[in-house]
Amino acid sequence: HVQLVESGGGSVQAGGSLRLSCVASGDTIGRYCMGWFRQIPDKEREAVAGIESDGSTSYADSVKGRFTISQDSAKNILYLQMRSLKPGDTAIYYCSLGPNYWGQGTQVTVS
Fold first, then answer.
1. Pairing label, strands 3-7, 18-25
2. Any idea which of 61-70, 79-88, 93-102 has the lowest mean pLDDT?
3. Distance separating alpha carbons of residues 5 and 42, to the nearest angstrom
4. DSSP per-residue string spanning the chain
5. Can you say how many angstroms the Cα of residue 68 is from the centroid of all Cα atoms in its chain?
6. How crowded is the C-beta side of 100, counted as CA atoms within 13 Å?
7. Phi, psi for residue 59 in degrees, rounded to 5
């Protein structure tokens, strides 16, 4: 049984930084593609950043140069370092493991 638990969300002013964490249990990360998605009310969930099993990363154009995805495979933790935050980054952020597993989400609010 895979469980993903996000943390690190909160409220910050524009230009600030946050680091999101996603702790995975029940399986070992690094074998799968993992990612961060975000969603605002009445909008579809959108991909923010992804990391493949070979370590290669990808980012949405809107966050390139500001967000960094990384993982600590030894600790089974996925991170999303977010800098230069904008009000448009306000959303619930979810981590994913493969195509089927999702965390419960953590709220990020930028004012």
1. antiparallel
2. 93-102
3. 24
4. --EEEEE--EEE-TT--EEEEEEEESS-TTSS-EEEEEE-TTS--EEEEEE-TTS-EEE-TTTTTTEEEEEETTTTEEEEEE-S--GGG-EEEEEEETTTEE---EEEEE-
5. 9
6. 4
7. -140, 150
pLDDT in tens, 41-76: 999 999 999 999 889 999 999 999 999 999 988 888
Q: What percent of the chain has pLDDT over 90?
A: 79
Q: Are 44 and 3 in contact (CB under 8 A)?
A: no
C-alpha distance from residue 40 to each of 1, 19, 46, 47 (Å): 28, 19, 9, 12
Residue 108 structure tokens? 């990020």
Residue among 63, 65, 64, 5 nearest 29 (CA): 5
